[in-house]
């Protein structure tokens, strides 16, 4: 048996447990994307939402590690 025939998945029909597992994986991926978007706003809130002077806010923006944020 050659490798191409050995690794072939044509004709594979997933059972109910496999489909449930794939749905769970998809659900977790979607939740992680939502969490990523929520968490990405935290630095902006820290810079602009916390009370402080304008000079401090400008300084914080200048020294913030934007490479880590990206």
Quick summary of this structure?
The protein has 70 residues and is mainly alpha-helical. It is 71% helix and 0% strand.
Describe the 3D structure.
The structure is a single chain. This protein is 71% helix and 0% strand. The protein has one domain. It has helices at 3-6, 16-40, 42-48, 54-63, 66-69. It contains 5 helices and no strands. The chain is mostly helical and 70 residues long.
Which helices and strands, and how do they pair?
Blueprint: H1 3-6, H2 16-40, H3 42-48, H4 54-63, H5 66-69
Key phrases:
0% strand; 70 residues; mainly alpha; 5 helices; 71% helix
The H/E string reads HHHHH
Distance between the termini: 48 Å
Rg = 24 Å
Q: What is the strand content? A: under 5%
Name the poorly predicted regions: none
For the record, the count of structural domains works out to 1
Overall form: elongated
Mean pLDDT: 79
Count of beta strands? 0
Helix content: over 70%
Structural class: mainly alpha
Profile the largest sheet.
none
Tally the helices: 5
């Amino acid at each position: 048996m050659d490798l191409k025939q050995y690794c072939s998945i044509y004709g594979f029909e997933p059972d109910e447990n496999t489909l449930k597992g794939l749905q769970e994986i998809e659900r977790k991926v979607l939740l992680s994307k939502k969490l990523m978007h929520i968490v990405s706003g935290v630095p902006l809130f820290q810079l602009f939402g916390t009370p402080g002077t304008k000079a401090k806010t400008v300084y914080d923006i200048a020294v913030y590690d934007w490479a880590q944020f990206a």
